[in-house]
Amino acid sequence: MTLPEFLPTIGIAIGKMLLVLLVAPLLEGAIRKLRAVIQSRKGPPIYQPYLDLMKLLAKEELHVTDSPIVAWGPPVMLAAILVAAGLMPIGGQAPALTAGDLVVFIGLLALANLTLAAMGFATGSAFSSLGASREIMAMLAAEPVLFISLLVLAVQSGSMTFAGLLAAPMGIVTIVAAIAYILALQMYVAKVPFDITEAETELIGGPLSELSGPKLALAQWTIYAKQFIYSSLFIQLFMPWTLSYLGWLPFAIVANVLLVLLLDVLVVGVVMSVNPRLRLDQALRYGMSLAGVASVTLIVAAVVQFVGR
Amino acid sequence: MIRDWLIKRILPRALWVYHVNCGACNGCDIEVLDTLTPYYDAERFGIKIVGSPRHADAIVLCGPMTRQTAPAVRRVYEAVPDPKIVFAIGSCAVGGGMWHDAYNVLGGADQVLPVDFYVPGCPPRPEAILHGVATALGLTEQEVARVSGVQRGNEVDVRSLPREERLVQEQD
Ligand code: SF4
To answer: Is B142 inside a domain boundary?
Structure first.
């Protein structure tokens, strides 16, 4: 491809990054509002997370350690998530870029988590280190489910690109994979029964506890963006019929954002409002059993494909 | 410029608070936590209790400043990024309260830190705490009667008067 042909593709990718950056805090705001409604109080306005982020960006940044990991960690986290946002499909439309497939995408998401954990270890505070080691354990529990349930789609369609995944034929195995994905959604977004890493009341924010000002804002923004990406992926890959009848892409994108909002409020918000936090080993066991179910589904899907050929 | 504008306009609507007990009897602490319950719902103003002083915009101090806690409270204050607001909650934090002359008490919170807002009471009601914070954020006006022990002009020590007259003196 020559450069002029390439420009629209880059433009779309940047547009997706901006969309994720701008919409992601709204999900958090909607969830906080829902929590308030469930607890029969008024709650903060729905745009509160934007205020929080802007305030944090304007605050002083304290120097806690000389480690370059802490200095560069938050921008790296956000950059990894933004590149992942540029690679992800939106409105049921795969990106024209052939650069990133599923493996790159999952790697970028994991990079953000690992950077967060590395920052936790680098600050050297007891709370951060404990939070960082929990972050890694939580990744062990959540990532297999994510990867395996997406691999089921890859096996169904015989392709690792998002264009292939979006075109994967529906089947029983897809439904099982979708159930595993949605049951693990709360772990990916690290919300209340699985907020073991941050554990506000116990680890005072875990790996985030030593960050202040703009760094904290970037790290928080990454966490919000991650939540948007995981939910949006579910809508597009496992419920493509919700978007496919909308012919025009801008409509599909709006529908996509609204569905993500609905999913996050109805599933993530309700689950987090009515549950206490789990212990780390309970979360691990939950994640491992889901991964087990997903693996069996993957094997079944692979065998069916093999016999079918 | 843009930073000052953000601090001035956004900070009052997204105040994150770190709560420090510098020797309180827990009465004030419980009242501070009461403001977060659904009944008082401090979160509707964007107020949030955070666990780490590095995330905080304001410190809420409860209880008299004791010799033991003073250095730790000082360090908490230094761990809060600028700009920061300090609240003294309860009679103890305002001026030492009933412990003002105890051997291990330095006095009120302002013996160690520059306190910006005082909320007296033993313990202050959650309404009073919310009112104090709302005043600090510019949501409401201050409501205090400026009464001093010695009245200007006739120089009468109110404490020497009988009870009924003292009440009259305090009201004007
Ligand atoms: S002001 Fe009263 S309630 Fe508060 S710490 Fe002092 S004695 Fe306890």
So the answer is: no
